[in-house]
Request: fold
Amino acid sequence: MMKAYVLYTRLTGWIYLLLAIAGIFERHLFYALTLPILTVLIYLMIGLTGLTMAHKADATGLMVYNLLLGAGLLAWGLAGTLQSDLFTPAPLPMDNALHLLTGLWAFYGLFNSFWGFLSAKSKKEDTN
Reply:
């Protein structure tokens, strides 16, 4: 069974890689996402890093990656939502929603793994 943090790393890697590839050809994806060149480069970096980490890293490395990426995406989404004039061009609501949702999803995977660790530890203590 695939751990939640591995699934998160792999799926967000693919999501952001595909968005980066789409952003190379189209700057406004379905008029829902704004994809300026800097955003495309960041998405490309997130996508390639995520796929590489999912393939090569151990569990601790993946958890650290998820923590850093989740915090970064949450900060990016909150900054775009609360102060939309920070970015040019102004992000569309779906831009901020994408960053917030994938950022929150990172913490879901981390908390799920942490909860599983605590449950296994308590079961081990109960048997002793």
